[in-house]
Design goal:
Elements: H1 17-27, H2 42-45, H3 60-145, H4 161-172, E1 177-178, E2 187-188, H5 190-199, H6 209-212, E3 217-219, E4 229-232, E5 240-246, E6 249-255, E7 259-264, E8 272-275
Parallel strand pairs: 1-2
Antiparallel strand pairs: 3-8, 4-5, 4-8, 5-6, 6-7
Helix pairs in contact: 4-5
């Protein structure tokens, strides 16, 4: 055996004082705790936990999560702000449209009122003009009746001074030629003869038969008076005209074969008549 070899001791290990005290206390029926070792300073025992606990370590995953949360919160704030701006713009647009509509309605109402006033004024002017024309025509008829009657070979039943002048002119044209488009004095067509006859008593008529057939008041053929304009065809589209001269006769520029003639109504029954005098 080596001189340096360690020979294990056969002695039992020494129990600590605390172990002996605990055993002694248990044996005697009293538990006594004895704590050995270095004593803990009072200041260390009373130190707050907040000063002793360690801060959690911020890992990369935690940082990423926090960043995402911040981005989400910022995006929500931006969305709320954008929505608020859109709501404000919509409300302003609605208010502007309502205001524009109200103004348009007011303008339309004002224009309608002005147009109604203008039409009423025009109607009043037309009515006044028509009354003046009727008064003027009545005055002309009165003055024409005072003119001396033109001499005639035969009397005209129911003729006044103006109608006598009218019939006198027409009878002076008997035998003259009918030429379409002619206006006298040597030749006439049907409407130019009627126009020339009425011009001698101061009344201007349209040149053609169509407007002449509506130039006066429509009268029944059974109630004719001297000077009434006879027409053939429908009123407004007549194709021929003549003048009733009384005693059941009319004078007209009939056609190129007969020229200007005086004939009974039965010779060519007219469609209607208008009264100008």
């Amino acid at each position: 055996m080596s001189p340096n070899a360690v020979i294990p001791s056969h002695r039992k290990p020494r129990r600590s004082a605390s172990s002996r005290a605990l055993r002694a206390g248990v044996t005697g029926g009293i538990i006594t705790l004895a704590v050995t070792g270095a004593s803990m300073p009072a200041s260390a025992a009373e130190k707050p936990v907040s000063e002793t606990q360690e801060m959690p370590t911020i890992t990369s995953a935690l940082a990423t999560s926090l960043a995402k949360s911040a981005d989400t919160a910022q995006q929500m704030a931006l969305d709320y702000e954008r929505q608020a701006a859109q709501d404000t713009a919509t409300a302003q647009a609605t208010e502007a449209a309502t205001k524009a509509k109200d103004e348009a309605d007011k303008k339309a109402a004002a224009e309608k009122k002005a147009e109604e006033a203008r039409q009423a004024e025009e109607k009043a002017k037309e009515k006044e003009k028509a009354e003046q024309q009727r008064a003027s025509r009545s005055s002309e008829r009165t003055s024409l009746r005072s003119l001396a009657a033109t001499s005639d070979d035969s009397p005209v039943t129911g003729a006044t001074g103006s109608t006598s002048s009218l019939v006198g002119f027409l009878r002076a044209q008997l035998g003259k030629s009918y030429v379409l488009g002619a206006s006298g004095p040597s030749a006439y067509d049907c409407s130019s003869l009627v126009q020339a006859a009425y011009r001698t008593i101061g009344i201007d008529l349209p040149r053609t038969s169509q407007p002449q057939s509506t130039a006066g008041t429509q009268v029944d053929l059974g109630n004719l008076q001297v000077g009434d304009i006879l027409y053939w065809g429908s009123a407004g589209s007549a194709y021929h005209v003549g003048v009733y001269v009384g005693n059941g006769n009319f004078i007209g520029a009939q056609n190129s074969s007969t020229g200007i003639v005086e004939k009974p109504l039965s010779y060519s029954q007219p469609t209607g008549a208008v009264r100008v005098l």
